[in-house]
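Thread: quick sanity check before group meeting

JM: Hey all, I'm pulling together slides for Thursday and realized we never actually wrote out the predicted structure for the chain we discussed last week. Dropping the sequence here so it's in one place. If anyone has concerns about the input, flag it before I start.
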Amino acid sequence: MTPSVAQPGAGFVVLPASWRGVFRVGFLALLRVLVLATAGATLGTAQAQSLPGAAPPPDTTPCAAVPAGAQHLAAGAVQAWWLPEPGPLRVGQAFALQLTLCPTQARLLRVDAQMPEHRHGMNYRPSVQALGAGHWRAEGLLWHMPGRWELLLETRLGEQTQRLTQSVQLR
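JM (edit): ok, ran it. Output follows.
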């Protein structure tokens, strides 16, 4: 049997009685699946947020403003931007780093640099100062030789420590 149109231009098809039961059962089953899936997803979300020890919801805090011309690094959930002061970097000239971390809850634990090919680092240990809202300042850096330096930023977000590194060629 072929379906027949109830009225011309009415926009629906009348199915034979033998087909109606099949479509009704299929539609009701589909409706049940959708309702249960939606309810399960909603309950699952509510339970995950209320269970002790459950992961917190993802951080939606916007990043702090990044200075123009800053270099970008990323590792895991932490991103960082750094800008030398005074810039550009020069051999044997002391400098500071203006740093921005994202998310803003990340903490900067330390800043360091080394020359992997020469197997040594800086002769000085930089100090780190929190400026608030994801902004940091590291002072007391000095790259005393030309060549490839590897900048290291050690950060902490929650209980996770991240090491962000970037290779910098100093001439």
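AS: nice. The radius of gyration is 30 Å. Helices lie at 17-50.
JM: adding both to the slides.
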